[in-house]
Write a structure and sequence with these properties.
Elements (H helix, E strand, L loop, with lengths): L2 H8 L6 E4 L2 E8 L2 E6 L5 H19 L8 H12 L5 H11 L3 H4 L9 H14 L13 H20 L7 H4 L17 H10 L2 H13 L3 H5 L6 E2 L4 E4 L8 E4 L1 E2 L2 E2 L1 H6 L19 H15 L10 H12 L4 H8 L4 H8 L5 H16 L1
Antiparallel strand pairs: 1-2, 2-3, 4-5, 5-6, 7-8
Helix pairs in contact: 3-7, 4-7, 9-10, 10-14, 15-16
Keywords: DNA integration, DNA recombination, DNA-binding
Organism: Acetobacter tropicalis
Family: Belongs to the 'phage' integrase family.
Length: about 375
C-alpha cells in the first residue's frame, strides 16, 4: 500500500464530518433535513468541536428553544446594550470590525469561541483577506486586524458581564505577534500646503490653515465654533477631542500662527462650513484629496499628503524652532511625552535632539 494512503487512514474523520480538499465540513441530518457547511479548519479535533456546536444550535432551533447565546445573538445584544456609552464614530468602527468575524464565528455559540478560534481567524484573515475598498484588492494590514480584535475583545467583555462567558479569549491571545508596521512619511512642506490651499474652496482652505498652524486633529478643526475662540487670551477651547476631555491651546506657538485663519472664519457658529451643505464637512479628507488630484494632473511631481500629516508637520516645526517638547505633548493632547518623542525625535538631527532635551530639562526646572 502506498505510504500516502496509510497516512490518510490514520486521520479518522470525526462524526458528522467530511473532508473537502484540506478543509473539514459538517454534514448533519436532523428531522430528515440535511445540513452542510464548512467548519473552516484543517484540524480534525477542532472540526469535531465545531460540528458539535453546530449540532447543538440546529437541535435547539428544531425544538423551538431560542438560541440566545449564539454569535449572532451576542452581536445584536452588544450593539443594543453594550455600545451606548461610546462615540458614534467608534460605534460605527466596532460594528464594521465585528462583521469580519461573522463568516467564521457565525455558527458558533458564544461560550465555545476559544483562543484557537481567534488564532485561526487571524491566519485566515492574513492569508485570504482582501480589502474591498480598492479595485484590485490589497492585503489586510496588521493595524486593521488589531482594530478588529479590539472590537472582538469589547464584545467578549460584554458577554462576560451578562453571564454568557466566564472569560475573554482575546485577552489570552498574544496580540504582540501582530505588529503594526508604519512606514515613515515625509511631512508636507509649507509650500506644498499653500499650493493646496490656493486651489481649494474657501472653507477647505480655511480649515487647512487652522490645521497647519495649530496641529489640531481633523475633527477638532472641522467642528470648531466661534464661541470656542478666546480672542482676548488668544486661546482655543477644544471640546470635540479624541478622548472627550476638553483641551485649551494657544493659537500662536513655535509651530505656527493661526490668527489670519481664525479672523476669516464666520463670526457665529462654525468657523468654516461646507459650501454645498452649509454644515460641518462630512468628508473633509476626501475634499482635500480631490483638490490634490487636480493639482497632480498639472504637476505630476507634486507630493501628495494626508490631512493628518499636517499635524506632524506642525509638531516638527515646533521642535525645530526650539519649542519645549513637554508643552508640545500637552498641546497635541498626547497621553504622555513618550508618544511625542517616539513620533518626532527621529526627524530631528542629533544637534536638534540635544537642544530639545536641554529645553525640556530647563522647562522642568522652572
Amino acid at each position: 500500500m502506498p505510504r500516502s494512503s496509510r497516512k490518510q487512514n490514520k486521520t479518522k474523520a470525526p462524526k458528522n464530518c467530511f473532508l473537502r480538499g484540506e478543509i473539514w465540513w459538517a454534514e448533519i441530518v436532523i428531522s430528515g433535513k440535511r445540513h452542510r457547511e464548512s467548519l473552516r479548519t484543517t484540524d480534525a479535533r477542532e472540526a469535531e468541536r465545531r460540528v458539535e456546536a453546530i449540532r447543538n444550535k440546529i437541535e435547539r432551533t428544531a425544538i423551538g428553544i431560542p438560541d440566545e447565546e449564539s454569535w449572532p445573538a451576542a452581536v445584536v445584544r452588544w450593539a443594543a446594550e453594550g455600545l451606548s456609552g461610546v462615540k458614534p464614530s467608534v460605534r460605527t468602527r466596532y460594528l464594521s470590525s465585528i462583521r469580519n468575524f461573522d463568516q467564521q464565528f457565525g455558527s458558533l455559540l458564544i461560550a465555545s469561541i476559544s483562543t484557537r478560534d481567534i488564532a485561526e481567524w487571524v491566519r485566515s484573515r492574513k492569508s485570504g483577506g482582501k480589502s474591498s475598498r480598492t479595485e484590485c484588492g490589497t492585503e489586510i494590514s496588521n493595524a486593521s486586524i488589531q482594530r478588529d480584535l479590539t472590537a472582538l475583545s469589547r464584545l467578549m467583555s460584554f458577554c462576560c458581564s451578562i453571564g454568557w462567558r466566564t472569560d475573554n479569549p482575546v485577552q489570552s491571545f498574544d496580540r504582540t505577534i501582530i505588529r503594526e508596521r508604519r512606514d515613515p512619511k515625509r511631512p508636507p512642506t509649507l509650500h506644498e500646503i499653500e499650493q493646496v490651499m490656493r486651489a481649494a474652496p474657501a472653507g477647505v482652505a480655511g480649515i487647512l490653515g487652522i490645521l497647519t498652524t495649530t496641529g489640531m486633529r481633523l475633527a477638532e478643526a472641522v467642528h470648531l465654533e466661534r464661541s470656542q475662540v478666546d480672542s482676548k487670551r488668544q486661546q482655543i477651547l477644544l471640546t470635540k477631542t479624541k478622548t472627550s476631555r476638553p483641551r485649551t491651546i494657544a493659537w500662536i506657538t513655535p509651530g505656527g500662527d493661526a490668527t489670519p485663519y481664525l479672523e476669516k472664519g464666520h463670526k457665529k457658529g462654525l468657523l468654516y462650513v461646507s459650501e454645498a451643505t452649509e454644515q460641518a464637512y462630512a468628508n473633509f479628507s476626501s475634499n482635500v484629496g480631490q483638490v490634490q488630484r487636480r493639482i497632480l494632473k498639472d504637476n505630476p511631481f507634486f507630493h501628495r499628503f494626508g490631512v493628518h500629516d499636517l499635524r506632524h508637520a506642525f509638531a516638527l516645526r515646533w521642535l525645530k524652532a526650539g519649542g519645549n517638547i513637554y508643552r508640545l505633548s500637552r498641546h497635541l493632547g498626547h497621553s504622555s511625552v513618550k508618544v511625542t518623542e517616539q513620533n518626532y525625535l527621529g526627524y530631528l538631527t542629533v544637534e536638534e535632539q540635544e537642544r530639545v532635551q536641554l529645553a525640556a530639562e530647563q522647562g522642568s526646572m522652572e
